[in-house]
Amino acid sequence: MIKNIFSIFLVSIILISCHSKNDKPTTALDTGRLFIRTTLDGNFNDAEDLLFKDTVNVETYDSYIAFYKRLPNDTKDNYKASDYTINKYTDLNDSTAVINYSNSYMNKPMEIKVVRVNGQWKIDFKYTTTSSN
């Protein structure tokens, strides 16, 4: 009886750990959605895991975090409470996509580029900092 209870407990823990929040997104759209949500929530550690890490992206991301930290708490709360809408999703090729989105707090269309690097989808800020849209 105790062995059965222990076995059920062990299987439950394994199943829960397999579906943890550390699961990596497997598509460009899922990566973009997760990045948007985590940054709106101010959860920069999780969002950083989704960043394509090169000099320009890291510097841009660090300046965004510094800007966010200076915001008043009520503004941060408004971002956290906001929803977001994907206005347009565009596959540029098999390893690059652009997501145009807006959040319900700012209602301003913004774009992020998602690139596949070494089999993983990552956010690349260079699209928004160097494009001439």
Q: Can you walk through the features of this model?
A:
With 133 residues, this protein is an alpha+beta fold. The protein has a single domain, classed as Nuclear Transport Factor 2, Chain: A, CATH 3.10.450.50. It contains 6 helices and 4 strands; from the N terminus they run αααααββββα.
What is shown here, in short?
This protein is an alpha+beta fold and about 130 residues long.
Helical percentage: 40-55%
Give the DSSP E fraction (strand runs of 2 or more residues): 15-25%
The tally of helices reads 6
Mean pLDDT equals 84
Summing up helix and strand content along with how strands pair, one would put the structural category as: alpha+beta
Gyration radius (Cα, Å) is 18 Å
Count of discrete domains: 1
CATH top level assignment: Alpha Beta
- Reading side by side through the largest sheet, how are the strands ordered? 1-2-3-4
CATH fold call: Nuclear Transport Factor 2, Chain: A
At CATH level 2, the architecture is Roll
Pattern of helices and strands: HHHHHEEEEH
User: Cα distance, first to last residue?
Assistant: 67 Å
Shape: globular
Low-confidence regions: 4-20, 129-133
Q: What can be said about the biggest beta sheet? A: 4 strands, antiparallel
Count of strand segments: 4
Strand and helix map with partners:
Layout: H1 2-18, H2 28-40, H3 44-48, H4 55-70, H5 73-81, E1 84-93, E2 96-103, E3 110-117, E4 120-124, H6 126-130
Antiparallel strand pairs: 1-2, 2-3, 3-4
Features:
133 residues; alpha+beta; Nuclear Transport Factor 2, Chain: A; disordered C terminus
